[in-house]
Every structure is written in structure tokens, then in C-alpha cells.
Amino acid sequence: MRAKCRHIVSLFLAVFLLLSCAACGSKQVQPEDTGDKDQYMTEPVPEGKPDPVEPQDTTVDTTVTHTCTFSISCETILDNMDKCVENKKFLVPEDGIVFPATEVEFSEGESVFDVLQRVCQDNAIHMESNWTPMYNSAYVEGINNLYEFDVGSLSGWMYSVNGWYPNYGCSRYRLKDGDVVEWRYTCDLGYDLGSGMGG
User: Fold this and answer.
1) Residue pLDDT, tens place only, 104-161
2) Is the CB of residue 187 less than 8 Å from the CB of residue 76?
3) Which member of 15, 38, 94, 142 lies 3.0 to 4.6 Å from 147 by CB, making a disulfide possible if both were Cys?
């Protein structure tokens, strides 16, 4: 009887493993109701703006370097200190500038996120992010210990390149020589930055 039970359990496990492995090679299917969005839920990119580049398809060439102007600011908080979490107020610089506009080097193929990581590390600026597979990009939760929602339910970090707030994640934006990158804290989903959730 014991041998028969062991045989049934082994058979069950074998069938379970076969079914599990059958799904391993299957392609991710995009939900049908996403409209014009790509597989990472990105709306169509406005005409004349760069398309996103997938991190897994990018090669960084460290033998070719470029420069960009990079800055980090939370100036919008200065007009919203009444909404700021009490124990975070001391983190807001007097002028709102976390990292002033500075020319920084980057390698061919690097993304906005790559440069943000390096700038923060090189300048001892706290930065926390997490990888979001649905958007195939890192999501920046906090810079300088100032996090999303620290200044209300519509607050958090946004980035712009050459004055445009891309509608896709910072890991998918490949930099070009001479780009101007700004990381800015919004207290109103980007409307206080002249954006409004990308655009």
C-alpha cells in the first residue's frame, strides 16, 4: 500500500512539474484592453520625442563618453511645507537644491537611471528605488530621504530631459550627449512642475 501511495505521489509531482515547465517558455501576453500602450503600459510617445529603449537590449560602451547637465531639486516643497511630514522637514535644503546643475560624464548607452545612481553614490546622496517589471524600469521612491507621499498623496519624484517629462521609466531613457536632466520633486502629480504626469 505504501509503495502504491508513493507511486501516486511521484506521478502527481511529475505531472505538476510538466505543467509548470510548459508555461516557462511562453511569451507574456499583453492584456487586450491596453489600447495603444506597449507591453510595458507606455502610452504612445509624442512625435519628435525619443522612444524608450529596453534595458535588456542596451549595451553600454565605456570607451565612449559624453556629458550631460544633471540636477536634483525639491524646491516645490518650500511652498508646501505645511503638507510635509514633520520629521522630514529638516531634510529639505534651504534653497530646495539637493544637487545643483552640474556637467557630468556618462558612457554611451547609459540611461537616466544609471547616471542618477552614480551621481547619488558619488555625492553621498541617499537614493532608493525598486525594479518594476510591469514598466520594465526602476521606480525612484526617494532621494535625499524624501519619499513619495512625504508631502501629500500626490507627491513624489519625476524626471525631465531637455524640458520634457517622459511618459516612461528612467531606466528606459537612453541619454545623448548634451542632454539636460532634472530630477524634481512634485507635490501635485507634476502639475506644479508644468507637466501633469508626463508630457
Assistant:
1) 999 999 999 999 999 999 999 999 999 999 899 999 999 999 999 999 999 999 999 9
2) yes
3) 142
**What is the spatial distance between Cα 25 and Cα 41, in angstroms, rounded to a whole number?**
22
Pairing state between β 156-161 and 146-147: unpaired
C-alpha cell, 107: 558612457
Taking CA 127 as the corner, what is the angle to CA 122 and CA 133, rounded to the nearest 5 degrees? Answer: 120
d(CA 41, CA 189): 18
Q: In sequence order, what DSSP letters do the residues of 95-134 get, joined into one string?
A: TSEEEEEEEEEEEET-BHHHHHHHHHHHTT--EEEEEEGG
Three cell numbers at 132?
Answer: 518594476
Contact 122, 104 (CB under 8 A): no
Cα 177 to Cα 172: distance, rounded to the nearest angstrom: 16
- Specify whether the CB–CB gap between 75 and 192 falls below 8 A: no
Residues 6+ apart with CB under 8 A from 140: 113, 116, 127, 128, 129, 157, 159, 170, 183
pTM for this model (two decimals): 0.80
Cβ proximity of 77 and 142 under 8 Å: no
What strands lie across the sheet with 61-73, from one edge to the other? 97-108, 61-73, 180-186, 156-161
Task: Name every residue whose Cβ is closer than 8 Å to that of residue 117 and which is 6 or more positions away in sequence.
Answer: 127
Residue 61, C-alpha cell as written in the block: 560602451
